[in-house]
Design goal:
alpha+beta; Creatine Amidinohydrolase, Chain A, domain 1; Creatine Amidinohydrolase; 2 domains; six-stranded mixed sheet; three-stranded antiparallel sheet; about 15% strand
Amino acid sequence: MSATLFNQQLEHIAHLQREYDALLAQHGFDSLAIYSGHAAMHFADDHAASFQSYGHFMHWVGLADVQHSWLVIQPGKRPQLHLYAPDDFWHLTTQLPDEPWVSALDIKLCTRRTTPSLDGKAAVIGDVASLPQDTQQALNAERAPDALMRSLDELRVTKTPYEIACLREANRLAMAGHQAAQAAFIGASGELDIQLAYLAASRQRESLVPYQNIIGLNEHAGVLHYQHYELTPPKQRFSLLVDAGRRFRGYCADITRAYAGADAPEAFAELVTALHGLKDELVYSIAPGVDFVALHERMHEHLAEILVAHDLFKGTPEQAVTDGVTRAFCPHGLGHLLGIQVHDVAGLRHPDGSPAPAPQDHPALRLTRTLRPGMVVTIEPGLYFIPMLLEPLRDKALPVNWALIDELLPCGGIRIEDNVLVTESGHDNLTP
């Protein structure tokens, strides 16, 4: 790892310490305990589900798989990390990396699960409700105070140089996986083999991905959160949609690509190219002061132009938007905040913590804020052929080209997604 990244991480921790000191004083707390969380066992089994550490815990230490551990923050004192590292011959014991950030914390390796002692008026955040009842009572702290939580979430909205470097590297690693997935598709692989090619090239095991990868061939590309991997390659290859990420030091990449297969109609390949152009146009529009809701609405306006230009809709672009045609072809939002969590915190709040809900016409939108420098957002326009969404249009006597849509139904859909940093003067696309 580069010395620059290590120095950025030390500066990141110092920044967090200053901000946490100020926020604890502002909200009247003398100490804060952050619980890392722990994996939950499958019902009636002794096998645990996949796990990732609590976001505010990772914000400090960048360790995505630490369980039963605590971080204690007290103004004017060094942060204390109580790291659970039991003596164990069944599993590899948790070990600290040989990295400079370790020196910025007071670290205690705990062979048993402990409960930190907290001074003065204390708060505790994390999945405390999953702890034994006696542990919860021993904490003697206010649990997840709402005003403090809103402030801590807001702190994560603007990324430090260290966080941006981690997001950039996560994107680089994820793109290697996407290139391998495309090659596997060209080689006529099935969904599972494409997934395995992605994991190998991005250098990660399946339990470590930041979200379950979506690998959808043909009509499966039109299932927005398609959750399976078929073992057998289809007889015809119309399309592939890959929505797959990578985590680096706790920070997530979230990238989507779509491809036309050898058996796809020419119209579908042209639509894939058009969606790439739409994504690029929207990325170029990102800058401080841009209203993300307005950008989402602009996506629908340009999507309407694509529908008309490619003969899917024989009316005007304005009619396609007004009559809800574009929403039937793209039911999700333009994007969301990205960071330690794929759908990062505070996307539906104003900077002061007050609610900023999605508009009634776009209920799936996950980001309603005005963009400012340091935010990282996804830009992911889509165009899908989903029967249950398109069928209601048939009853409205709209000028939809149903013959062409029926031809494109086996292709499922298209989504193109990049991860973009808002800079002081515009934007920086983190996706290679």
